[in-house]
Amino acid sequence: MALISLEDLEGLDDEQLDDDITDNPEPMDEEEGGRLLSHWQAVASAHQVSVPAEMTGPIQEMTRNSTQREPLPFANISCHEKMGEVLFEERVYPAGHWACVTRGEKLYEQSISMAFMKLMRFICKENSAGRFLGMTVPVISNVHMLDDGTSFEKDVETAFYLPAEFQSNPPQSSDSDVTIVYREPIRVFARTFFGTTNEETVSRQIHLLWEILGLRDDLRSDRYIVAAYENPGVPRRRNEIWFIRRDL
């Protein structure tokens, strides 16, 4: 199937895409499904990632249910502003079960893309519950730093918090690469940014937040979290960089 160009992608109205597809409860016909797959393939090709045709079903399922995303619960501790601009927020996220995939591709964005496709298949019926599980946002990626403090380790873990319905009895994946992990609460400093996420853009956000905060011993500098609130097909998606406090 031919891919649409990046110029076509930049001109694609995502709200129109939602109107055409997500508001329609009926199964998509071949043309609609093909258009949606091409949209994802075009986005992925910019990062040297291939989206196979077998992802058509999960992409359609996730798109139809895109308005039914459960927000990850948290307690807002403080909000820090300067001249009306939010610089960062301090939050506590609860303990709970996460579905996790670790990939070690050549590029950071390849790792998170490949991991997210596995998570999509898990959400869309490739699980012991045999049903669509529902989605929570944000999807997070755990980034570990090399000893130089500036470069990323190759392995990146991408994860999403299981919906409340499944927290007490988590479904298991039919893919051994998808693991269910129970995590303790974490306290983070979160700063919002927009656009694509790759090693360059994430590194820039890490540097910016350190400039705002200054040197602090209560924050980890060996590990950071990137939180994505929208799917990779959104050109200017909302993200956050999270700095992790060493204690609650």
Automatic annotation (TrEMBL):
- Similarity field: Belongs to the HEBP family.
In this chain, the stretch annotated as Disordered covers 7-32
Q: Name one GO molecular function term.
A: heme binding
The protein's matches in PANTHER family, at most eight in alphabetical order, are given as: HEME-BINDING PROTEIN 1 (PTHR11220:SF24), HEME-BINDING PROTEIN-RELATED (PTHR11220)
Classification via Pfam families: SOUL
Identification of the protein by name: Heme-binding protein soul4
**Taxonomic lineage of this organism?**
Eukaryota, Metazoa, Chordata, Craniata, Vertebrata
The family database entries (InterPro entries) matched by this protein are listed as: Reg_factor_effector_dom_sf, SOUL_heme-bd
